[in-house]
Amino acid sequence: MPWWRLSGCRWSGARSGPAGNVAAVTTETAPPTAKRVPAERTHHGDTVVDEYAWLAAKDDPETIAYLTAENAYTEERTAHLAALRADLYEEIRQRTRETDLTVPTRKGGHWYYTRTVEGQQYGVHCRRAVRDSETEPPVSADGAPLDGEEVLLDGNLLAEGHDFFSLGAFDVSPDGRWLAYSTDFSGDERFTLRVKDLTTGELLPDEIPGTFYGTAWSTDASVLFYVTVDDAWRPNRVWRHTLGSAAADDVVVHQEDDERFWVGVELTRSEKFILIDIHSKVTSEVLVIPAANPTGAPAVIAPRRQGVEYTVEHHGHRFLILHNDGAEDFALAFTSADVPGDWVPLIEHSPGTRLEAVDAFANHLVVSLRTDGLTGLRVLPVGSGDEYDIDFPEPLYSVGLDANPEYRTGQVRLRYSSLVTPDSVYDYDLVTRQMVLRRQKPVLPGPDGRPYDPAEYEQHRDWALADDGTRVPISLVCRVGTPRDGSAPCELYGYGSYEASMDPWFSVARLSLLDRGVVFAVAHTRGGGELGRRWYDQGKLLAKKNTFTDFVACARHLVKAGWTASDRLVARGASAGGLLMGAVANLAPDAFTGIVAQVPFVDALTSILDPSLPLTVTEWEEWGNPLEDPEVYAYMKSYTPYENVAPVDYPAILAVTSLNDTRVLYSEPAKWIARLRAVAPGGDYLLKTEMGAGHGGPSGRYDAWREEAFINAWILDRLGRA
Questions:
Q1: Measured at the alpha carbon of residue 620, what is the angle toward residues 619 and 621, in degrees to the nearest 5?
Q2: Which of 124, 168, 533, 661 lies 20 to 30 Å from 149, alpha-carbon distance?
Q3: Residue 171 annotated in active site
């Protein structure tokens, strides 16, 4: 799924019991005290006093001093976990093949792949020429470089001298000569775009700062399209850059002035058209430009209509249209590529089967879908043959198409995993229906020296009953033989927003929890997309509280069913899932012994009231517009975590954030922790701020492992398994 389809995503005394180890640790240092500087705001006759609004001043030395003091306090409060953190980090490292190589993907006359090298934080992006009669991807022993490889980009060299590094664009031109790539060294997701000549290895003087995700090449590779943002950091402009010219001469191809919408750009797999996707939360419009005529005026596939979403894929003489016009779970149609007009049905709407994407190849279409809470792939032969679904063996799994850049091909590459099956790459023959495993991510022996055996773990699908009678799915994994008498500790993960689905995924770091007897569970609450569009609609706007009550229902069910007990249960969520964490802390503090909230959207009302902030206006169709609608204002105020901190016994809380996060500002968890300490002072609340990263946290893989080890050590301590 292209990035822009999810670009608005935001990612009294301590309780006693067997998980009370953190609370039992004493320290002579008191937690930092945030000064109170009352700031008032009034909306719809309601005046709110925000004593900690000053923490939003990122450039104020007092703010940085406070965050630094919080980091020091958190480090002191968790100092007793240093050895455990080191063990967990080492377990991740031991189980990971550090020098490794992805399965090469063919595009034109080259195989493209990425290598990692032991001791290096970032990937090395490479290609190797396809050799005579070579039909299968080349392999190497233990991740060694392929014979004859060409290094296109080494992330480790680019990252030298920087604490943070991220690639935005990585786009090779259709003729294979040019590489457009962009870099971010702060974590704010604002990139500098450059072009490299792959025949000489030299960088062109072309350099464009302040770009966003998304690029597309013209057919002859003379023109590069890219995206920039407005003052609120909303991607709103698509530009045309002629190779070798100055950025000041670039031309705006489309500017989106409606602040509800964001834009993206891509080249179709057929390499015939540039697509400009214009999307709000509930409405879309697509413009096309022939890639062979990049200076041509964009043509509209179908004018935007409020509430109608559609995406476009080019296929021969037609454009494929995946849409929800009279089709809640989406239908597939097509229209003429020469003169777009009426939509001709191809796959009719089927309630309960959510069509999510269509990928076009010369002789086949592959539709990504979900039904009964599981992902799937449907193949439609072109011209002859019946459509069919690809079967998969496990009761819980995630499957989707991987990189498939070739249009004329008889096979597709897909990626498969489950809670017990490591990430697996398959090549699937669309004619013979044979599936060949190209690679399963290695899981090396852990501390005990034994190889990973999926048979030692078991996965389950369970269902909780929500307050309104709705059945809410839960995915679980644990070691075989884990008791069901309530004695096992458990981590419950949740998200529940933006129609994003938390499909089962494998995690090397999670093995360290499972092997210590922890049950891992995922609550598939409303607001996500696991059970189709209706599941999403029932957890947004004025139905948002369903997300929170569903999660609590899942927690209560796990206790009732004997999976765990409330004093052995830790909740975890990130971004909009962090909002979920803050909401359930207020709603049911007795249900958990600990809560981990990463980059948490806990001051949602304040943010959604401020149109100048990144994402706010585009988010109004997700949360409602509290500026204009008093009902939305009152509803959001009734659940926003920061607004509803109360003098109750909260579980221990660990909030993790990043200073340069542009999706959820660091000030939200900082203010939340400050208010928790003031209103419910007996609790155990920690704030950890990454001072040089963005929404995704640390960028290097070793740094990310250390961050995960830190969080998992805290979780194990709360669960009495430290």
A1: 90
A2: 168
A3: no
Of the candidates 100, 171, 550, 661, the residue annotated as catalytic is: 661
Between the alpha carbon of residue 68 and those of residues 78, 210, 574, the distances in Å are 15, 29, 22
Q: For residue 423, is it left (φ>0), alpha (ψ between -120 and 50) or beta?
A: beta
What is the mean predicted confidence (pLDDT) over 131-159?
Answer: 93
575 is catalytic: yes
146 pLDDT more than 60: yes
The domain limits of the chain are 39-93+459-719, 100-152, 162-308, 341-441
Catalytic residue among 125, 524, 695, 717: 695
Vertex 483: Cα angle to 477 and 489 (nearest 5)? 65
Name the nearest CA neighbour of 401 among 432, 430, 426, 434. 426
Closest CA to 202 of 155, 166, 169, 244: 244
- pLDDT at residue 700 tops 90: no
* CATH code for the domain defined by 162-308: 2.130.10.120
**Model confidence at 513: pLDDT above 60:** yes
CA distance 147 to 113: 13
Q: Which residue has the tokens 């899981």?
A: 443
pTM value is 0.93
| In the predicted structure, residue 465 carries a pLDDT above the cut 60 | yes
Find out whether 340 and 301 touch, Cβ atoms under 8 Å. yes
**Cα gap 272→261, rounded to integer Å:** 25
162 given a catalytic annotation? no
The encoded tokens of residue 185 equal 């060294």
Structure-block tokens of residue 488: 């096992």
Please state, in angstroms and rounded to a whole number, the distance separating the CA atoms of residues 441 and 97.
Answer: 9
Q: What's the pLDDT score for residue 673?
A: 98
**Average pLDDT rounded to a whole number, residues 165-169:** 95
Mean pLDDT, all residues of the chain: 93
CB neighbour list of residue 446: distance below 8 Å, 6 or more residues apart = 91, 94, 95, 452, 511, 512, 515
Return the CATH superfamily for domain 39-93+459-719. Answer: Alpha/Beta hydrolase fold, catalytic domain (3.40.50.1820)
pLDDT digits (tens, 9 = 90+) for 51-84: 999 999 999 999 999 999 999 999 999 999 999 9
426's CB contacts (< 8 A; 6+ apart) are 413, 414, 415, 416, 435, 436, 437, 438
Q: Identify the CA nearest to 261 among candidates 288, 215, 297, 229.
A: 229
pLDDT of residue 55: 96
**DSSP reduced 3-state for 510:** helix
Q: In angstroms, rounded to a whole number, what is the distance separating the alpha carbons of residues 469 and 485?
A: 26
* Host H or E run for residue 536: helix 533-537
Helices 576-587, 545-560: axis angle to 10 degrees equals 60
- The 10s digit of each residue's pLDDT in 205-251 is 999 999 999 999 999 999 999 999 998 889 999 999 999 999 999 99
Catalytic residue among 368, 417, 418, 575: 575
